[in-house]
Amino acid sequence: MTNEGIAKMTLAAGAAAVAASKTVAAVDAAKVDEAFKTLKTYDLGADRNSLKPIDEAIIATHGDAAGRKALEKGLVDALAGGISRAAQDYVCRRLRVIGTAQSINALAALLPAEETSHIARYALERLPDAKACDAMRAALPKVSDKLKPGFIGSLGIRRDEKSVSAISKYLGSSDLLIAKAAAHSLGLIGTSTAAKALTSFAKKAPDGMKGEAADACLLCAEQLLADGNKTAAIAIYKGFQGEGVPKHVKVAATKGMLTAAAKK
Amino acid sequence: MANHKSKPKKDQSTSHGRRTFLKAAAASVALPYFIPAAALGKDGNTAPSERIVMAGIGIGNMGRGDQGAFLGRKDVQYVAVCDVKKGAREGSMNRINGKYGNKDCKGYNDFREIMARDDIDALHCATPDHWHAIIVIDACRNGKDIYCQKPETKTLREGDLMLKAARRYGRVVSGGSQRVMGDYRGTVNPCWNGDKGIIKSINVNVGPFPRESNKKGQPIPDGFDWDMWLGPAPWSPYHPHLCSGSFNINGTSWRSFKDYSGGGMTDWGAHHFGGATFAIDVRELEPEEVIFHNENGKKFATCVYPNGKLLHHNHPGRGNLHVEGTAEKGPSKPVPKYSGTGGIYGDFIDCVKTRKRPFRDIEFAVHTTTVCHLFLIAYELERSLKWDTVKQQFVDDDEANRLVDVARREPWVI
Questions:
Q1: Which CATH code fits A163-264?
Q2: Ramachandran bin of A18, using left for φ above 0, alpha for ψ from -120 to 50, beta for the remaining angles
Q3: How many Cβ pairs closer than 8 A exist between chain A and B?
Q4: Portion 92-111 of A in contact with B at CB < 8 A
Q5: Is the pLDDT of residue A138 over 90?
Q6: Integer Cα distance of B168 and A221 in angstroms
Q7: What is the model's pLDDT at position B23?
Q8: Which residues pair with residue A8 across a beta bridge?
Q9: Nearest by CB to B168, which of A96, A147, A218?
Q10: Cβ contact (<8 Å) for B408 and A185?
Q11: At what angle do helices A52-60 and A85-98 cross, to 10 degrees?
Q12: What is the Cα A11 distance to its own chain's centre?
């Protein structure tokens, strides 16, 4: 930010990536403009500092809706413009912080490809708009088995109730990485519907899934308890008191029961 | 403890198989003609069935040091190592097998194989930071205690999850800063003795911040599982500076890069902030606010605790661990100590045996790294933030809340 005393200024008219009429607070607009131009050819090995004016503009535009929208549009347009993987990586990291519904389609377009899927999810998982979940949920059945655990995990972290049905189907996957992600995510979602799917699965879980299923049930019970559903939580804990349950799981279930009992 | 374990299901050739054999043999043979005293623990050694069976995950620089400390203990039987670098893994196996004079120690590229071994009681983890939470949580859910190198967390959310996993399963989880107790006595003792008066604040000078990498790739060395090294972190081409375990934070080690570390702010911060929070006795608390200051271009920040104590970072004009207190004598209280013998490692082992909480219990470790992350996020956004310690979220700051965690690369989920 080198422009002395500038509180607000208009981005240079030649800015290809950022709408010319938008304002950015206390930022050297020419440098931002130049950084967006650089982004088009940015690749591995390039000077990371060449993009720093965009980073600074993001900080400077906090609370400036118009400025932010302009920056976001610039980033989204860059994604659509056929930039390198390194540049896509840079853009997705910025959209993780400032992305809105405006970014979701561009990020969703990156989800199916193995090279860009994670970095798109890196932005989408943290983007609060519900449409981010919609995009990941819609992509889940279409992406490769290698990518599926990541999507399932992100939907779990978002506690996306709408995904419970789809995720539940993966509990029985022969791919243990998918099945484990499904169990864990249902535990994170932690609703009654998720609990039903999990407890039903836990009773018949194959050896390779028993530990994950138990852990997911315990996670789910904690979430239910936190949400005030004491009865459902206790029902889960009771399921881990019998013979053959590993000692540490039994300890966890007993502690859970005591916590639930103490909760009004 | 070893003698509480069920019969191992696999890998009978390894030491856990041997240990089970010893137990079975002892039960079936009424009066052996000769049992060495050492095997019964009568020469000052610990009987094999009473030793803590350990494995190490990530055995490069710090991992090697940690391993040496555990390996040197008579009450530890070291049976497995895991590292994604074949050379490090095999070198470590040879070191251990050389010490024991057998071939029992096994090597693994994938830590999940160690988690699956039900003969292993405890682990130590010295992987790069982006792996810590996954490994610690997996250890807990597999009923294992764990000593995890500092900085224990890579994100704020990870700390909450690690602490909950430890408590859920009743595991002993120790953080890994030996300096908190070892290096800061000159600050801690006067504070706890009351010589600094009623404590108002402490300052920590530490850095630098981590950076993003944009390095061009190089050929992956033979025997190095680069994809596993990256694990949950975003993909990057291989470059030796990204994965060097060097202690430099100047762009030539993983400690320098945002995807794997919090830079000096967490790497040295875990020590300094750990010492500072110990000195002013706020280990059991998390700050409720971090105030970002920008005075004539000089940026610094302050964490505010619920009891009003202040933890400054890079406060102008104040030295590292500078304590500000009242003039009158403050209350005096005994300074907490390690359990057992052998420093932080002995403390962990003793707690594994007694089920006490270690000196560097995961709760204190997480609270320290939480300070680091709160500062990092305040500096990244260049603004003050309020932190809800119960919800583990920033108050009314959607943007800051995005930085509470990162999406992990498949298949890793926590």
A1: 1.25.10
A2: beta
A3: 115
A4: 93, 96-98
A5: yes
A6: 12
A7: 36
A8: A25
A9: A218
A10: no
A11: 10
A12: 31
When pLDDT is cut at 50, 70 and 90, the band that residue B18 belongs to is very low
What are the Cα distances from residue B79, in Å, to A63, B1, B54, B117, B137?
56, 14, 6, 11, 21
ipTM of the complex: 0.92
Instruction: Tell me how close the Cα of B409 comes to any Cα of chain A, in angstroms.
Output: 6
Residues B292 and B185: their CA atoms lie apart, in Å, by 29
Q: Which of B164, B169, B214 sits opposite A251 (nearest CB)?
A: B169
Q: Which two tokens stand for residue B306?
A: 């619920």
Token pair of A257, please? 């029961």
Distances B235 to A86, B188, B282 between C-alpha atoms, Å: 10, 42, 38
Cβ A227 vs Cβ A260: under 8 Å: no
Is the CB of A211 less than 8 angstroms away from the CB of B411?
no
Report all structural domains of chain B as residue ranges with CATH numbers, in order of start. 13-178 (3.40.50.720), 180-210+261-401 (3.30.360.10)
Residue B206's closest CA among B385, B384, B379, B406? B379
- For chain A, the domains span 1-139, 163-264
The amino acid at residue B226 is W
Copy the structure tokens of residue A85: 């993987």
Written as one letter, the residue type at B303 is C
Average pLDDT over every residue of B39-57: 74
> What is the DSSP code string of B110-176?
SHHHHHT-TT--EEEE-S-GGGHHHHHHHHHHTT-EEEEPSS--SSHHHHHHHHHHHHHTT--EE--
Report how far residue A74's alpha carbon sits from residue A86's, in angstroms, rounded to the nearest whole number: 16
The predicted model scores a pTM of 0.91
β pairing state of B52-57 and B76-82: parallel
Report how far residue A99's alpha carbon sits from residue A128's, in angstroms, rounded to the nearest whole number. 9
* Pairing label, strands B323-325, B310-313: unpaired
Alpha-carbon gap: B399 to the closest alpha carbon of chain A (Å): 6
At B45 the pLDDT is: 66
